[in-house]
Amino acid sequence: MPANSLHLVAACLAMVLLTFVVSARMLQSRVREMRAKRIDAQAVSTSVAMAQRLADVRAADNFRNIFEISASFALLVGMWLAFWLSMRAAAAAA
Questions:
Q1: How many domains does the chain have?
Q2: Per-residue pLDDT of the chain (94 residues; tens, 9 = 90+)
Q3: pTM for the whole thing?
């Protein structure tokens, strides 16, 4: 595997780590706000109810953006690696 591939895999892992960090921050901020406002978890069981009841939705917006970007990036890296491996197999067969 060339060095460029290792860098791409490392970037994917960094995106996954960042997604977990933002999700932990989102959980922390939502639990804190729900405790402060004494909101029952069943009262915010849907995303619509959550948006209506909670004021601080910045972490949720960041999580949504990071998750979409990291999923797209991982898909592109996977496609690139599959293409690279198929080209390498074709070159070895020739």
A1: 1
A2: 666 778 877 888 888 888 888 889 888 988 998 899 898 888 888 878 887 888 887 777 788 888 788 788 888 888 888 888 888 888 888 7
A3: 0.66
Query: Mutual orientation of helices 58-93 and 3-37 as an angle, nearest 10°?
Result: 160
CA distance linking residue 6 with residue 9, whole number of Å: 5
CA distance 8 to 19: 17
Burial status of residue 8 (CB atoms within 10 A of its CB: 0-12, 13-18, 19 or more):
buried
The whole domain housing 12 covers 3-93
